[in-house]
Amino acid sequence: MNRQLWFLLIGIGFFLSSCSLAPKYTQPMTPIPAQWPQGEAYGNGSAVNQTMAVSELSLNKFFTDPKLQKIIETALINNRDLRLAVLNVERVRALYDIQKAQLFPVVNAVGYGNKQRIPADLSVTGKSMTMEQYGVNMGIASWEIDFFGRIRSLKDRALEEYLATEEARCSAQIALVSEVSRVYLALASDLENLKLAQSTLKAQQASYALIHKRYEVGIATEIDLYRAQTRVDAALRDVPRFTQLTAQDKNALNLLAGSPVPEDILPKDLSSISPFKEISPGLSSDTILTRPDIMAAEHRLKGAYAFIGAARAAFFPRISLTTAVGTASNELSGLFNSGSGTWNFAPQIAMPIFDARTWAALRVSKTDQKIVLTQYEKTIQTAFREVADALAVQGTINQQVSAQQSLVNATEKTYHLSNKRYTVGIDGYLSVLDAQRSLYVQQQVLIALRLAELANQVRLYAVLGGGSA
Fold this sequence. Notes:
Blueprint: H1 2-16, H2 45-49, E1 52-53, H3 59-62, H4 66-78, H5 80-101, E2 107-118, E3 129-145, H6 150-216, H7 222-257, E4 279-280, H8 292-313, E5 318-329, E6 341-350, H9 356-423, H10 429-463
Parallel strand pairs: 1-4
Antiparallel strand pairs: 2-3, 3-5, 5-6
Helix pairs in contact: 4-6, 5-6, 6-7, 6-8, 6-10, 7-10, 8-9, 9-10
């Protein structure tokens, strides 16, 4: 008994001091420029740097619109895709716990009984006899002592996979918040376009009625009448089209929120939405390394390093231990009598001599590490491009909106002047028709640019790794 305990303590000591054959991890150099792009497309850098960093903002600080805040909160609770991401994290964590448990011995208690009749011609006494044996053991069955870190490397790989999955959940949350905001803004834009189409329809119907009266008295021509009819029909076409789009936007928002969104927290138009908080990416491009998708890729890279350690450990001996202590007797009532104790201690060592699979597995692990490294670098490059694109929009969108607003104002004045000149008989109705058509188109472009401006602010927040509660 003391001998068994002595060997067990030695084995545990070796286990606790086991080495690892995994290569030491060092963070790779980032394959992107040290700073964000500069130039005319990116606006005035000093003005951008005066805004807050995304790491300093929570969801409620960035999304200042109270209606949008409520919808985002509902989506974070009820969205099924996010719920699946959370459940996947729980699953991978349980798999990690299973892998980690292999470092420790499994202790089982086993009770057994055996009763056997032996015929006379097989009995050593020459007489038939009945033999009985009962026993109770508690021990360890085939516990691998991790001298060379094979199990520990697999445990480290499982841990990194769990951490990568947790970062993937964060990415899913950011994507959800960004998509809810995008659909919310699209709904506001389509509602504004619907209002524009409805007001244009009323104006065109009034204009058509006026021309129809002028046509009846012989002042307006027949071609003027039909030209006015085309604008009425165009507006009649756009009203149901934007009605359809707003309905589809609401359906998408309900799906993202995981439940029907009350009408009272839906937007009225783009002007009714509270502006988002201005943010800055900072001076260094290294700020994107904290993005959840990049951190997930790095955890997978660390896991690939650990898997190399497990593949290397396969070339070294495996030492396993089977041991048990208990009691045995030929009578059930004598199991726990004095002198009935038993024990066994059976260490085993397996030395690999030739197995071509181990060399192939090592090559696979090294190739996997290179693949994951390339994926990690590609993830960083993609993130840099996404932020740079959002910065390019941020640096130019204000000028586009300002110029478009001026264009709308000028086109609106042109329309009113053309209408007056037609009324007094100076110009034909064609000039009025062109001015009205141009005004309607430019008003739609202005709405689209205002939508792009707001949507880009949300995108910049998301691609910089925002989205935490």
